[in-house]
Amino acid sequence: MMKEPFPAASAVPNSCMWSRALRASQASLPSAGLCVKSLYHVTNTLGRHIENGALYRVFGGDPFMDTGGQELESRTTWRHVGACRRRFMWRKPFLSRFESHWEPFLTSKSIYSLLDRPFKQELEEVLWLHKLPFGLHSSVLSAFSTLQLLPEQDLPGSFGRLWCQRCIVVGNGYSVHGQHFGKMIDSHHVIIRLNDAPVKEYKKDVGERTSIRLFFPESALPNPLENSDNNTLMVFVPFKPLDFLWLREVLLKTKNKTTEGFWRQPPQEWNWNISQLRILNPYVTYEATYKLLQLNASSKRYATTGIIALNLALHLCQEVNIAGFGYPGNHDTTTPIHYYNTGLSRKNELFQHNLTAERNWLLKMIEWGVIADLTSHAFQAQNH
């Protein structure tokens, strides 16, 4: 049984006894008792002694509070608090989280930190010792020169303002085709999409809003604005050293671009607002592959963009849902892989991934309540 951290005794109103608090920590939220008034997510900015992501319960008759300790309006109800009930589920020991200063994107500062010895965090050691897609070994200079082209490198503050951020990762799977989940998907605060998946002609099924889109050279949209919002954050995922070169060339509009070394020819032009572009920290891919999926390094396989995006979402959001995940079975030769390009099978693109491990991990996370599948009957029944 996972033990939740609790505040110091002085922080607990005397209207609640510790015995009740301990019982509540082991109970499901609906049966935790009237003593548990609200939940709020405490970040490491409130004190060095508090581990980032630790969940504290506010006891007694105290008002509801948000992440900054501010009182919420009286109309806040258990329904609002319950929407954030999953936050504590995915912390240690469930998913082996340990980096309290975790940063999702590469920055010039994070590159500079690799010059210090000894390394202060495992994150820095991983970046230095591992090659792409898990680290920057032999690619540090290429990454640094690419970062110099980005005027903004950190996570925008707008992604951390909500006390209970509901996010959804929209996969490209055929399971959403014809299901008309568009409005439900668009109701989330943060909507993460993958690769070149279109929305323009499929908004009834997948919605039309896009907060974040993960992509790499071979999956880049030549004109992202056609299927993204003006304020969409485009997140570049480097899988090989050549990917940094491609990004520099399209940003600098180099005439004679590199064309060899890609498994599929990437766009020769890529037009986007450069201030809305970030580079994913390879540690996110490392964590998704070895901490979440627990793949064997000798297999030389890595997580799909979908699992990488889920790892990002689980760090950013208090509630994480999914839609469009899953692939047809090995013996299913008729069901398309994607909700678009329905007559085209592209299973040859998936050989570098362990789809069985990903499916098992997703099922486990859904069973534990860490994430929820929008396409499941249980989710639909609960939200109607």
From TrEMBL:
It is a single-pass type II membrane protein. One of its GO terms (cellular component) is Golgi membrane. Keywords: Glycoprotein, Glycosyltransferase, Golgi apparatus, Membrane, Signal-anchor, Transferase, Transmembrane, Transmembrane helix. One of its GO terms (molecular function) is sialyltransferase activity. Its main location: Golgi. It comes from the Eukaryota. It is found in: Golgi apparatus membrane. It holds the Pfam family Glyco_transf_29. InterPro entries: Glyco_trans_29, Glycosyltransferase_29, GT29-like_sf. Belongs to the glycosyltransferase 29 family. This is ST3 beta-galactoside alpha-2,3-sialyltransferase 4. It comes from Gallus gallus. The gene is ST3GAL9.
